[in-house]
């Protein structure tokens, strides 16, 4: 249980980091590049991340203060079925994301070269991270 | 074991399909791209690269499936490897951790690129980040209902 409490505190720190990054990003985009093409859309991305982070921080804080809620969250986090669902979902999502990025990258070759190159780079990044993490787990487990 | 053999045969058909599509892609866009669509060299080369990689990957997949299906010992070895609990757990865990790292990385990339450039690359990273999150959530809710 103490380990889970620490996990919640760590995840709160990570969410705070994202809020900090988003606020800095939004301020810099609005203040220093007012002519930024479609700046509102970009600020929308930052706002969405802030909203997601705030909701999660609020949930974690509530759990840290309320013993009953914390226990409920802890049980949910160690529930084998939920763990299995998360792992299975991640595995499937991983292939869906890679396949959709590949298709989008091919389609966008006709429309915008920049978008296509960015998508290809994303795909490379995902594959590199995946192979690195797999190698790490292969050694660790 | 028979189940695995069927799975390999299905995979073989899938690889064959990708091989045909990528071959057609190389032919249409790389070889005849200029004549058919008036594409410039750069675009033709990039298409050639993508479809070429797909072609080589599917070719390697077909080769390995054929070899495995032809050799009973190899088939048994592959079957044991594919049903090994440790490998399955590693694969699932790696996918989960990779998606988390990728989401964070894409978001940080989005913030950095948006601040320094205005060519839409940052926005693509942002969309990729949120799409990853969305796809993961949808698939998770699907499995929540299914399992």
Mean pLDDT of chain A: 86
- What share of the residues of chain A does DSSP label as strand, in percent? under 5%
Q: Specify the overall morphology of chain A.
A: flat
**Low-pLDDT windows of residues of chain A:** none
> For the report, how would you describe the main beta sheet of chain A?
none
- As a whole number of angstroms, the C-alpha radius of gyration of chain A is 20 Å
Order of helices and strands of chain B: HHHHHH
Oligomer: heterodimer
Q: What is the total tally of β strands of chain A?
A: 0
**Arithmetic mean pLDDT of chain B:** 88
Class based on secondary structure composition and strand pairing of chain B: mainly alpha
Largest interface: A-B, 55 and 47 residues
Class of secondary structure makeup of chain A = mainly alpha
Helix content of chain A: over 70%
Radius of gyration of chain B: 21 Å
**Proportion of residues in helical segments of chain B:** over 70%
Task: Specify the number of helices of chain B.
Answer: 6
| Element pattern of chain A in H and E | HHHHH
> Strand portion of chain B, in percent?
under 5%
Distance between the termini of chain B: 25 Å
């Amino acid at each position: 249980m103490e380990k889970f409490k620490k996990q919640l505190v760590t995840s709160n720190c990570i969410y705070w980091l994202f809020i900090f990054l988003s606020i800095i990003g939004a301020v810099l985009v609005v203040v220093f590049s007012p002519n930024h093409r479609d700046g509102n859309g970009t600020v929308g991305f930052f706002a969405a991340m802030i909203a997601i982070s705030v909701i999660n921080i609020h949930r974690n804080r509530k759990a840290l203060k309320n013993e009953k809620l914390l226990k409920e969250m802890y049980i949910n986090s160690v529930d084998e079925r939920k763990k299995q669902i998360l792992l299975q979902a991640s595995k499937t999502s991983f292939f869906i994301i890679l396949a959709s990025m590949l298709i989008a990258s091919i389609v966008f070759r006709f429309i915008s070269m920049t978008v296509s190159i960015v998508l290809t780079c994303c795909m490379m990044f995902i594959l590199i991270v995946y192979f690195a993490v797999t190698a790490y787990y292969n050694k660790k487990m | 074991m028979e189940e695995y053999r069927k799975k390999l045969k299905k995979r073989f058909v899938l690889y064959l399909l990708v091989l045909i599509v990528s071959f057609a892609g190389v032919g249409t866009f790389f070889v005849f791209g200029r004549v058919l669509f008036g594409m410039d060299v750069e675009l033709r080369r990039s298409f050639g690269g993508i479809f070429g990689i797909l072609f080589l990957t599917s070719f390697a997949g077909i080769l390995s499936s054929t070899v495995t299906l032809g050799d009973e010992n190899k088939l048994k070895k592959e079957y044991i490897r594919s049903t090994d609990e440790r490998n399955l757990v590693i694969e699932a865990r790696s996918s989960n951790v990779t998606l988390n790292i990728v989401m964070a990385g894409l978001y940080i990339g989005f913030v950095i690129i948006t601040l320094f450039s205005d060519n839409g690359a940052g926005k693509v990273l942002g969309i990729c980040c949120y799409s990853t999150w969305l796809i993961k959530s949808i698939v998770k809710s699907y499995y929540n209902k299914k399992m």
